[in-house]
Write a structure and sequence with these properties.
With 256 residues, the protein is an alpha/beta fold. 35% of the residues lie in helices and 26% in strands. The protein has ten helices and ten strands. The strands form two sheets. It has a six-stranded mixed beta sheet with strand order 6-7-8-3-9-10, sandwiched between helices. A four-stranded antiparallel beta sheet has the order 2-1-4-5, covered by helices on one side. The two termini are 31 Å apart. The mean pLDDT is 93.
Length: 256
């Protein structure tokens, strides 16, 4: 989809973040468009994960963190002190590098978020579980053992369950921080196929160290280096004709 046709769900302006005296993000300007997958690449320690965690203020709880600038989500600056964090995280879900199912049943994992937000009716919760597990292509694998411990699932199934848990609150945006780095190739492929399906309904931002993955799943790719956003463009442009030599050097394996 053409960016002019699409709404920017996030519009980040001059975002700076410090951990103590460490200036971890430097003057980031970054739009994220609706129903697109935006991949964030760059070497370790360049600010990728720090950046994605700002989008639902996950790093606000870190001691000595300071943020300046604007993170506009649907037109509202979430760095404004009046933001409701619970509501924000309902709308901007997060999936982490390592699958972390709660030590509960498969069913209880999925309904955790909706219950926090006040959904109590069993028939509604049942519908949420079925819808969320179908969305991640896990329903047929687990529908007969929803009361079994989530920790008994395989690694790939656990990660898809964590994505289902993020979907259960019907967010606008799903943030994924290296979601396949701990998975085998077959599970990785399933998650990548899932990302391509989910963008029909959701906006997705994914941090990945795997450049082939970024090329396969994303519409836009951003290259970070030393806390700066070096380049953001259509994925095919970033991988075939980047405008910055540092992007080209990274993509061709000269460093990183």
């Amino acid at each position: 989809m053409n960016a002019t046709m699409t709404k920017a769900i996030f519009d980040i302006n001059d975002l700076n973040l410090w951990y103590g005296s460490n200036h971890a993000l430097k003057g980031i300007d970054f739009p994220i468009y609706e129903n697109e997958v935006t991949a964030i690449i760059g070497p370790s320690g360049c600010g990728k994960s720090t950046f994605i965690k700002t989008l639902n203020l996950m790093n606000q709880s870190v001691p000595n963190v300071k943020m300046l600038g604007q993170i506009n989500y649907n037109g509202k600056n979430i760095l404004d002190s009046k933001v409701d964090l619970v509501e924000l995280r309902k709308n901007v879900g997060m999936v982490f590098q390592k699958a972390v199912p709660f030590p509960k049943t498969i069913y209880e994992n999925v309904v955790y978020g909706p219950k926090i937000h006040g959904t109590r009716k069993k028939n509604v919760l049942d519908e949420i579980v079925e819808r969320s597990l179908k969305d991640v292509a896990l329903w047929d694998e687990v529908k007969d053992r929803l009361d079994a411990p989530a920790l008994g699932l395989s690694g790939g199934q656990q990660q898809r369950l964590c994505i289902a848990r993020a979907l259960a609150t019907q967010p606008d945006v799903i943030l994924m921080d290296e979601p396949t780095s701990a998975l085998d190739p077959i599970s990785t492929l399933k998650v990548e196929e899932l990302i391509l399906e989910l963008k029909e309904k959701y906006t997705i931002a994914i941090v990945t160290h795997n450049m082939q993955q970024a090329a396969r799943v994303s519409d836009k790719t951003a290259f970070f280096l030393m806390g700066e956003l070096i380049e953001l463009d259509e994925t095919k442009v970033i991988f075939s004709n980047p405008s910055d030599k540092r992007t080209e050097d990274y993509i061709t394996g000269r460093f990183g």
